[in-house]
Each structure stands twice: as structure tokens, then as C-alpha cells.
Predict the structure.
Amino acid sequence: MGLLAARRGPHRAAGRARELGAPLRASGLLLLAAGALAGAPETPHGLIERIACEGHADQSYAVYLPASYAPPAPSPAIYLLDARGRAILPIERFRDASERFGWILISSYNSRSDTSDDPNTPALTAMWNDSHTRLAIDERRTYLGGFSGGGRAAVSLAQRLEGRVAGVIGCGAGVPDSNPSRSALAFPYFGTVGDRDFNYYEMRALDERLAAAGSPHRIATFTGRHDWPPAELAAESLAWMELQAFRTRARADDREALASLYRADVEGAEGLESAGRRLDAARRRAEIAADYRGLLDVSAAESRAAADRNDASLQKALRDDRRRDARDRDTLETLAGKVNRAASEDPIPPVARVSAELQIPALRHRAAQGPPEERLSAERLLANLRVQTGFYLPQRFMDAGDFRRAVLMLSLAAEIDPDAPSVYYDRAAAHARAGEPGPALADLQRAVDRGFRRFDALEADPDFARLRETPAFHKWLTDARARV
């Protein structure tokens, strides 16, 4: 199935939500009432790596219980949906925050994105029902979080749960495509995105739309690509949800804890300023003044935000930033049209010509040598091209059996990221499916030269079934294993 297909995840959920002893409701979810682990002789803490859902053995999840967890007293909990079902990864990112704020982390092994079905509804349904029978969960403080397509699913599921979700943390992607969120969300939303993420512009646009709608939200940027946030930002997201709990009175009044959140937020803005992230610092100061208004004395924060609004150089930088974003969004639309035309052109066009039309050499040059903001801009544009030519379009062509066009797209991805072993592995899979053993072996060698070592996966991958029948493959495999 190639690394391309493997990234989609091997699990295919059968049907939509599977309920526990009841027909489907209109929302597609049946969520049971809480039933804590009462009378247990000893309460476990820390990571519980895998729990199989009662009655749904194909569904499982991991749990992290902070040291403060003490049933029957309920604790806030967040359900996490990774795009590839890597349940432990988000727990690692949120573990420190869990200990700091006393949140339970519950993470599915069955969540997915980029599938033709909906695995996330049954994944959330199963782990919600099962965890509510095992753990003491605060019904007023239950949250959803997700990465990439899992982030979109978290928004969609929270909307369907009609008030039973206290907030959503969306990482690396915004709202579902079917919901452009032109009106306020019914719950607080904290978004995170890497400054080189291919969804960066989407998250910036979402920030603007939610602000215009007056929806409680904050969207924070970190240094990085398409990923869950680093631990520091994960802690910030939980801290912001703690603040929202104070505002809605879901958490009991605690002036000292509230003041501590405020001080940490102010220090975070100062840290951004010290790191040279002047625009992010100004945005944070404006958010602090708005978020704590009515809860604490925010006169100092409002004074600093007013000074930012009167700073001519800062306002110019903000305008330049908005213009750059608008320019890049226009560029992305143009590039998307060129990619789609090349994908449908007959005969298949030369890679070099399409690469030039997509400005790939120029963008790579700007990403390496331009001014800082222009380097970031070029990296984001290349990341968008890379995900289309290296994942979505090849996936579509492989599923349709159009292997030559899959090769074209993956060749463009190799122009963008020539050091990525996955690109050559996936192109080798396309060649192998097309019955081209020579090019397939050449690309496998390129993948190995760039760090590919999953020979066990190669021997089981159905995309290479025909290639494995050839003596040339076995000779190459023996030689490759010997060299590495």
C-alpha cells in the first residue's frame, strides 16, 4: 500500500457511530452518564498505555491520570483525536499541562483523517462511553482536541454534542470544510498552528472570522511545521480553557489561581517580544486585555494594548503582515489551478516544465535566502504544494489506477523536498504498480539513501507484490540490507 496509503491509516471503521445498546440518535453519538471508579483499592496515576473499550474490542485508547486525580472527586478531561491514531503522541505533548492543571488525557488509537468514511465518530463514542464508566470526569469540563483532520473532527463533534463540550483545542487545522464558521462557535476555541504549516493561512483566516463573530477564541503560532503543539503551547491552551471555566463559572472562584493565569499570560507576551516575535506579542497583549476583562483589573494590559495601537511602526508591520498573507493566499489559489491543470493535461507534461510553472525553484531559493518573513512565506507555499503533490493528488491517482499521473505528482514533490525518503518510496510504489521494476528499484534505492529503513514494511506492502516476484528485487533487498 505504500507509505502514502499507510499514512492514511490501516483501520477502516465499519459504518458510522456504533452505540451501546441503543439505536443511533440524530447526532450520531450516544454518550453515557459518568460512572467513576468507585471503591477501587488504589487509584492509578500516570500513563495507562492501552484500554480496550468494553463491548467494542476494535476500539482502544490511552489515558494519562495526573497525580491530583482522586475519585470520586471529578476532574476535567480532554478527548484527543490524532490524525493517524498515534494515541501516545498528544499525551506526551499535554502531559506536563495535565499535571499542572489536573486534567485527565484520553486519546484514541482509532482516530484518523483523510479517509473515505468517518472513523472519528465511533472512536469518540466508544472511548467516551468506556472512560465515563471507569473515571471520575467533570461533566461541566469535558473538552475535545485534535490534530489536522482530527482537529476538524473535534469541532464537528462538539457542534453535534449540543453543549456537552466545554471547549475545543484544534491543532494544525480549523473547522470542517462544510462549516466555514461565519458565525460564532457555541464553545470556546483554542487553535494552534506552526509558522511553516501548510494550513497556516487557513488558521489566520479563521482567527479573523471568529473575531468578527465575537466568538471566544485564541489562535497561537509556534515555530514548526504541521504538528501537535510543543508542550509549552499545549500548556497555554489548557490555561486558556481554565480561564474560560472561570468566566462561565464551571470552575469555582479562585482569585489566586486566576491571578496566576494572568501573570503567566503576561510573561508569555514578554517572552514573545524578547524572542523577536513582535507582532505575536502585540496580538497576545490585545487578547489578554479582552480575555480577563470583567474578571481582574486589566488596566495595565489595556494600557499596553493601547500603546501598541498607537505605535506607528508596529501598526505598519501589522499591515504589511496582512498584505503578505493576502498575497500568499492569492498565490496559493493560482498555484492550485496550475497543479490541477498539469494533473489533467494529456499527454502528461514534463516535470521540469510544471516545476517552473509552479515557481518551485524560485520558491526554494527564496526559502533559503530571502528576508525572514519572505523565507517563511516561501516555506508555507512550498508546504502547500508538497501536501498536494506528495499526498492528496497521488492518493487520488493511485486509487484510480492512473500510476503515470501519480508519478508526475510525486516527481514534483521530489523537486520540492528532494531529501524526503517517503516521496521516493511512494513513487517507487507507483512505478511498481505500473509494472516498471527498473524505476521502482531506482526509487527504492533513493529512499534508502535518504534514510528509509523499514524493510519489513516493504516486504509486506501490497503495492510491491509484483515487484517482489522478480529476482532483481531480492538481489536489491539483500544488497540494501547489507549496506545499511
